[in-house]
User: Fold lysozyme from Araneus ventricosus.
Amino acid sequence: MELLQALFLTVLVACVTAQLPTRTQKVPEVDQRCMECLCQASSNCDQSRKCHNAGGGAYFCGPYVISWPYWHDGGRPGDKGRAHDFETCLNNKTCAEIAVRGYMRKHGQDCDRSGAIDCFDFARIHKLGYGECSSDYILDTDYWEKFEICYIGHAEDNVASNYGNNGNIPVNYGNNENVAASYDYGDGQLQARRAHN
Assistant:
C-alpha cells in the first residue's frame, strides 16, 4: 500500500511540475525604440488621452492604454496609497513606461515562437496579455499594423538616419520634453499600406 501511495505521489508531482511555466530565456529590458512603438500602436502616442471605460468593465488609461491589473503587475509605479494613483501614473508617459517595463520583466516570454524574446513579443504581450500572447489573430489588427509601421519602417527609415546606429529614439534632450521622431503612424499610413497590399 505504501509503495502504491509513493508511486501515486511521484506521478502527481511530475504532472504538477509539468504544468508549471518555466523560463529558460532571460527577458531583455524594453528599449526606448520599442517603447515608442508600443505607444504609437496603442494610441498614436496621444499624451492627452485620459482614462476611459472601454465597455464590459474594461478601464484603460493614458497613451499606452493600460489597465489597473497591468499597472499592478508592472510594479505599481507612482503608488502613494491613494485611490487614483494608478490613473495619475498611467496618464503620465514616463510613469506608464515604468509600468510597461515592469510588466515585461515579470511576464516577458517568446510569444511568437521565434526563439528569442524581443519587441515583437512585447507588442503581443502589451495588447493581449501574457496568457494570450501566442494568438496570431493580433496580426490582422490596426494595432499590429501601426506597431509594424513604427518598429520596422521606423527602424530602417528613421532611427538609423536620424539618431545613429544604436536604434534608440531619444526621450528628451535635457529639457524634460518627450521627443518623438517625425513619422506618420496614423490612419493615412495604414490606408496607404492597405492600398499597396
Summary: The chain has eight helices and three strands. Confidence is low (pLDDT under 50) at residues 15-22, 157-186. Strands lie at 52-55, 58-61, 66-67.
